[in-house]
């Protein structure tokens, strides 16, 4: 599953153009341009699995709802659901579109993994959230556990000197989030 086709999110796919074996289904937004010539030379990658906003699909027993985000390229977050758990994955966004915010308020995730590239700012950031934006979003969504991701060096330095509110934590490489 891809959120969008910016290089920092798809660069690991390029070597698969020369792979051998069965096709690998890639789920993502219907971005006709994709990234560079990845669509033109997909190799093992099967990009025919485009998804649409708020249209639920099943992925190996997981119910997945694509959610539009605010970014410089067509970008989706995802609500991942099992019978007992909801996790929202919201990477690369500056705030949330109103329809996405309402959807998450009505389908409250137990865990929300959300872009938070910047420390608290007075001015509204572009393309990526700051901590003030994430705090305001969660006032509406009310997820009990918020994991911040896409953290910049500046925000990392801020985190070394400041505590996050209860229920908020910084994500890290290799972190596992259980969905029962």
Keywords:
RibonucZ/Hydroxyglut_hydro; 2 domains; alpha/beta; Metallo-beta-lactamase, Chain A; seven-stranded mixed beta sheet
- CATH class of the largest domain, anyone? Alpha Beta
What fraction strand? 25-35%
CATH topology of the largest domain: Metallo-beta-lactamase, Chain A
* Main sheet makeup: 7 strands, mixed
Question: Kindly, what is the distance between the CA atoms of the first and last residues, rounded to a whole number of angstroms?
Answer: 20 Å
Q: CATH-wise, what's the superfamily of the largest domain? A: Ribonuclease Z/Hydroxyacylglutathione hydrolase-like
Strand arrangement, major sheet = 3-4-5-6-7-8-9
Query: H/E order of the elements?
Result: HEEEEEEHEHEHE
Uncertain regions: pLDDT < 50 for 5+ in a row?
none
How many extended strands?
Answer: 9
Mean of residue pLDDT?
93
Helix count, DSSP H or I runs of 4 or more residues: 4
How many structural domains can be distinguished in the coordinates? 2
Radius of gyration: 17 Å
CATH architecture designation of the largest domain: 4-Layer Sandwich
The percent range for helix content is: 10-25%
Looking at the structure, what is the overall shape?
Answer: globular
What would you call the structural class? alpha/beta
């Amino acid at each position: 599953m891809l959120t969008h086709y910016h290089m920092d999110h798809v660069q690991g796919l390029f070597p698969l153009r020369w792979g051998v074996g069965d096709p690998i289904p890639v789920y993502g937004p219907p971005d006709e341009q994709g990234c560079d010539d990845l669509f033109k030379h997909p190799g093992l990658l099967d990009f025919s699995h485009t998804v649409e906003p708020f249209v639920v699909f099943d992925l190996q027993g997981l119910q997945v709802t694509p959610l539009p985000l605010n970014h410089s390229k067509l970008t989706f977050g995802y609500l991942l659901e099992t019978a007992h758990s909801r996790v929202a994955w919201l990477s690369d966004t500056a705030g949330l579109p109103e329809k996405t915010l309402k959807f998450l308020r009505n389908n409250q995730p137990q865990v929300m993994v959300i872009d938070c590239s910047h420390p608290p700012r007075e001015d509204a950031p572009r393309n990526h959230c700051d901590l003030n934006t994430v705090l305001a979003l969660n006032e509406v969504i009310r997820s009990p556990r918020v994991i911040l991701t896409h953290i910049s060096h500046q925000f990392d330095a801020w985190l070394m000197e400041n505590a996050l509110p209860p229920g908020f934590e910084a994500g890290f490489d290799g972190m596992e989030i259980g969905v029962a």
